[in-house]
Specification:
Blueprint: H1 8-18, E1 23-28, E2 34-38, H2 39-53, E3 61-65, H3 70-81, E4 85-88, H4 95-105, E5 109-112, E6 119-120, H5 131-136, E7 139-144, E8 154-158, H6 159-173, E9 180-183, H7 192-200, E10 204-208, H8 214-220, E11 225-228, H9 230-233, E12 245-248, H10 255-265, E13 269-275, E14 279-283, E15 297-298, E16 303-307, E17 314-319, E18 326-328, E19 332-333, E20 343-351, E21 357-362, E22 366-369, E23 372-375, H11 376-383, E24 389-397, E25 400-407, H12 414-421, E26 429-433
Parallel strand pairs: 1-10, 3-4, 3-5, 9-10, 9-11, 11-12, 12-13, 25-26
Antiparallel strand pairs: 1-2, 5-6, 7-8, 8-18, 13-14, 14-15, 16-17, 17-20, 18-19, 20-21, 22-23, 24-25
Helix pairs in contact: 1-2, 2-3, 6-7
Length: 451
């Protein structure tokens, strides 16, 4: 007799039954109010919300539109508890963007917390062309990539894949019931190797509605683990004696940001490389204080192979547990995406003698200047070392190399200083100071197409 594969919801249910009074979630709203849920209350709310969702055929694709906070968490867990596949859709997207993403995902129903009930997808058949392959995987989570360097791809994860990649990540993160984890990244984009992982291992999840409140909330709630982006960590200015690990991800970490954070909080920032098709791949714990810009050492379960055309760096290929099960729209199975060296990530880098990964850039961000190849990320890393630069974006168009920067102090000498830093390019640059950089729907910097 066949049995259903285990799910991460079963581990959360078991923890809720064993420790119903332990806090699972603490949320600081924009008005300063704080709401709390124990594991027992969390499980009760989830089961009540799952009743409506169980009216759908098993393993339906259910879109979720909800703001970052308790409502998103409860609705997402309810979708999983009802046996469906969660498709998170940012509430910050325009109506047309939402409709396009929902159509590409092939959702069967939509749960929008701002509207009552469950919205069935208009004209959407329950059985799509790839639904037989889809349902055979025991699907749990379908999220689209950021699209920062091209069209967004739909990445599908099964229940077993989620269990594998959360276990692989926790071999290094070591999340436990003793931890209070402040997760600053939006749940619509970061849910599996973050929120689900924390709940699987019995931690208390801390969430804030406004990033400006994060540093104080981390202090008052005695956070032990922080998980955010370099931009969010700029706001931290007070000591954090209880923090044992501060993880920086989603974009490259510059030395000025890392040094400022360490000087104010007493905690080094550990850069991590997370890839939606892979999971949490590397973490830079050992050299976080002295070399914070490194991507770090791979998780024990992963093996990296650098596929090079003769130089020191090359494309990073990965083998290990928890790799994606498939791409959707169009459908491509995970197995069909693998090469002899594993999954090709599209990221370029190299491994030093200690096994630490040095990231160079994305394949799609490679440019050639005077016959010499460079990655846009390499140039941005140099620009970001300037103390007045908050972030930068480099690309090439008909006017040559364009460097856009967001600065905290605009000075007349900035252009000269940037040109001196980029003298190795041996080509003129065009510096543009802008109030902010363009973003994708997931919050990453949107890159123009080079050329």
């Amino acid at each position: 007799m066949s049995t259903s594969p285990p799910t991460i919801l079963e581990t959360i249910r078991a923890w809720s039954a064993d420790t119903p009074d332990q806090e699972a979630l603490v949320f600081l709203a924009a008005d300063g109010s704080v709401s709390r849920l124990t594991y027992g209350e969390l499980q009760s709310h989830v089961e009540m919300r799952a009743v409506l969702l169980r009216q759908l055929p098993l393993q339906s694709r259910v879109g979720l539109i909800a703001p970052h906070g308790p409502e998103f968490l409860l609705e997402a867990l309810a979708i999983l508890a009802a046996g469906h596949c969660l498709v998170p859709i940012s509430h910050q997207l325009t109506a047309s963007q939402r409709d396009k993403l929902a159509e590409r995902a092939g959702i069967h129903a939509l749960r929008d917390v701002e509207k009552c009930g469950l919205i069935m997808a208009a004209g959407q058949p329950i059985d799509l062309a790839d639904d037989e392959d889809f349902r055979a995987l025991s699907p749990a989570y379908l999220r689209f990539t950021s699209g920062s360097t091209g069209q967004r791809k739909g990445v599908l994860l099964s229940h077993s894949t989620i269990l594998e990649r959360t276990a692989a990540a926790n071999a290094r993160l070591k999340i436990s019931p003793a931890d209070c984890v402040l997760c600053l990244l939006p749940m619509v984009d970061h849910f599996v190797v973050s929120i689900l992982l924390y709940l699987r291992y019995g931690a208390t999840v801390l969430l804030v509605e406004n990033d400006t409140d994060a540093a104080h909330f981390a202090h008052t709630q005695m956070a032990t683990v922080l998980y955010g982006s370099p931009t969010q960590y700029r706001e931290f200015r007070n000591p954090l004696p209880h923090v044992r690990l501060a993880v920086s991800t989603t974009q490259g970490l510059s030395e000025p940001v890392a040094q400022s954070f360490f000087a104010h909080t007493g905690c080094p920032l550990a850069q991590a490389l997370g890839i939606i098709e892979v999971g949490l791949l590397t973490l830079n714990e050992d050299r976080a204080e002295t070399e914070p810009f490194l991507a770090g050492v791979p998780m024990p379960a992963y093996q990296l192979t650098i596929v090079s055309d003769g130089g020191r760096d090359g494309e990073i290929h990965v083998t290990g547990p928890g790799l994606l099960d498939a791409y959707v729209s169009p459908w491509r199975s995970g197995a069909s995406l693998l090469t002899a060296q594993g999954f090709p990530t599209g990221d370029h880098g190299w491994l030093d003698d200690s096994g630490c990964l040095h990231l160079v850039g994305r394949e799609k961000n490679r440019i050639v200047l005077n016959g010499v190849p460079f990655f846009c990320e390499e140039i941005e890393a140099c620009v970001n070392q300037h103390p007045d630069v908050l972030e930068s974006l480099v690309f090439v168009n008909d006017n040559g190399v364009v460097v856009r920067v967001v600065v905290q102090n605009a000075q007349a000498s900035l252009a000269q200083a940037i040109n001196e830093r980029l003298a190795f390019l041996r080509t003129p640059i065009r510096l543009e100071v802008v109030p902010e950089l363009p973003r994708t729907p997931t919050g990453k910097v949107a890159r123009p197409i080079n050329g």
